[in-house]
Amino acid sequence: MATRRWGSVAGQKYIQRIAVLMAAEKFTDLFQIRALRLHALKGEREGQYTIAIDERWRLILAYDEAEETLFVEEVSRHYGD
């Protein structure tokens, strides 16, 4: 489904990114993986994080520190184009 929705390259990277998220022991470990380009968002999305899928697509994440749970909020186009 991911490849149909976002194309073969982005679809495969999406699947890889989800596998990395599931394999991480702690949320903070993800910051060490440079290829993810994980960073906190600002403005209207303050409190959320983003991970790059490719140059165009990104995963928007929310982390519940108390529950130590990471939620994938959405997949969006990086610049809304």
Secondary-structure blueprint:
Elements: H1 2-6, H2 8-23, E1 39-40, E2 48-52, E3 57-64, E4 69-77
Antiparallel strand pairs: 1-2, 2-3, 3-4
Proper CATH architecture: 2-Layer Sandwich
Number of strands: 4
What is the straight-line distance between the termini?
Answer: 21 Å
| Spatial extent as radius of gyration | 12 Å
Description:
This protein is of the alpha+beta class and 81 residues long. It has a single domain, classed as 2-Layer Sandwich (YaeB-like fold), CATH 3.30.2310. The protein is 26% helix and 30% strand. It has two helices and four strands. The protein has a four-stranded antiparallel sheet, covered by helices on one side. Strand 2 and strand 3 form a beta hairpin. The longest helix is centred in the N-terminal third of the chain and has 16 residues. It is globular and about 35 Å long. The model has no long low-confidence stretch (mean pLDDT 89).
Which short descriptors sum up this protein?
81 residues; alpha+beta; YaeB-like fold; 2 helices; 4 strands
Please outline what is shown here.
By secondary structure, this protein is of the alpha+beta class. It contains two helices and four strands; from the N terminus they run H-H-E-E-E-E.
